Amino acid sequence: MNRVATRRATGIVCGALAGAAFTEGFLLEPFQLVVTRLTVASPWLPSGFDGMKIVQLSDLHLHHISRAYRTAIDVIRREHPSLVVITGDLVDRPEETSACLAFLSKVWAAAGGPVVVVPGNWDHRAFPTKRSIAAWHKRIQAETGTRVLANQNVVLHRHGDRMWLVGTDDPYFGHADLDASFRGVPDTAFALVLTHAPEAFEELAQRPAARLVLAGHTHGGQVRLPFIGAVRVPSRYGTRFARGLFKLGDTFFYVNAGMGMSHLPIRFLCRPELTVLTLKKPVTVARPL
Predict the structure, then answer these.
(1) DSSP string across 192-233
(2) Residues near 195 by Cβ (< 8 Å), separated by ≥ 6?
(3) Which of 2, 43, 175, 236 has the fewest Cβ atoms within 10 Å of its own Cβ atom?
(4) Mean pLDDT for each 10-residue chunk of the chain (289 residues)?
């Protein structure tokens, strides 16, 4: 094969690969929801919460309810979770709230149980003042039945036991107040912590009650390359906590890859994610004397 033909063939192959990547990243993956199933076993889990199922979504960045979001509602309806949590970044702009409110209402109806959200950095961009974000949170709760936790906690009861659900405000822009978030939570308790970004992971690992922390923000990198993984993650940790399950000390951390997109409408090798987590208490087998 002469040099001209080789160049032509190379150009055709490169063009085909670029076209395939464009199609995958812009036209296919953003609408293809992946469901991740995970079991987290903790000896500190109260027995009454053994087998509790939690669905996590994150980073909705809702402009309209596309196929991935409709699929998420169907999955929630089938799973019958005890709790649905959304770890921040609901909207990008204040004029897009109607789609978000409609989606949250559908999630609440499909779940048949509590739905809890915490704020993310894009929520604070959309509502930059204390007054505007407080009004937005009030509207979410009034119109969709969804509970907003921002540096607060609530007690969950199940089968005669109790655990704490802690929700921080956004740590990426510095709104998280861990002292306020854990106020009244005993050090010996089991606390499920919701936070938007990994920025406070090391600090949360120092909180005795923080047994499981769920976060998002990273979008899993949004664009991942074979053998490399996430190219860039907006976090002080870089790509260290891009997505998946981690453990610091005795605390488990899970970073969800999110549903939506920011800056560019692309997802490559990083589909929208819905996580189904099941809490388990390990069985202790007594050894014979």
Answers:
(1) EEE-SSGGGHHHHTT-TTEEEEEE--SGGGSBEETTTEES--
(2) 87, 118, 167, 168, 171, 176, 204, 213, 214, 215
(3) 2
(4) 48 36 54 95 97 98 94 98 98 94 97 96 97 98 97 98 98 98 98 98 98 97 91 93 96 97 87 98 66
Contact indicator for 208, 187 with CB cutoff of 8 Å: yes
Fold classification of 33-280 is Purple Acid Phosphatase; chain A, domain 2 (3.60.21)
The token duo for 245 is 């399950």
Q: Give me 61's structure tokens.
A: 């960045």
Give the DSSP letter of residue 281: P
Number of other CB atoms surrounding residue 265 within 10 Å: 13
**All structural domains of the chain with their residue ranges:** 1-31, 33-280
Q: Is the distance from CB of 183 to CB of 153 less than 8 angstroms?
A: yes
